Amino acid sequence: VGHDPAGAEDPRSLGGPGNGQHDRLTAEQDGERGGPGGQDGGVELLAAPETVNRWLAERGLTPADADLQEACAARLRARRDHVRALFAARVAGEPARPEAVAAVNDALNRAPVGPSCTGPPPTGPPRGAAVTDRVVDRARALLADDAADLLTGPDAERLVACGSPPCTRYLLRRGRRHWCSTRCDDRARAARAYARRVQARPR
What we know:
Elements: E1 2-3, H1 23-33, H2 49-58, H3 70-92, H4 98-109, H5 129-152, E2 159-161, E3 170-172, H6 182-200
Parallel strand pairs: 1-3
Antiparallel strand pairs: 2-3
């Protein structure tokens, strides 16, 4: 989820410039298609286990050596899709799909979301599947917790979809504008200018 770029140079923080609120949700949307407005060519950055592992590690959600497998990556993508379904329902004023609610609640219940203790890197044998599962479950729980906080808190009233197709991001609206990034703002302006030129042509 991004934020309205009006009056801010950096559109990536969902809660407003500088405060870091909802940063994990913002980053998760960037992972879906390579960034605001489909930049980086519309690439799915969570497509393969190694890119998912790197994406999570860069955001402090998993250790760099988590060694995720495709089953774990698929669970993370599915959880993200369920959160997006909840966002879409909230924006449309429609009831949330029961399966999306159940999936987010399941992610929340699988792992604690409070601070965890970390020590030096392990020196024993590689992590087993059960340990990796716990690491992924905690990452899923943290992301689900962020989504639940947004959807049940005061910011939910400001949640909107980016108004610059083909962007599929969500943002917290501030003022009249409803674009997730300067890139989307520029594209919307260009589309409106083109539409005006077409309408002004002699028929």
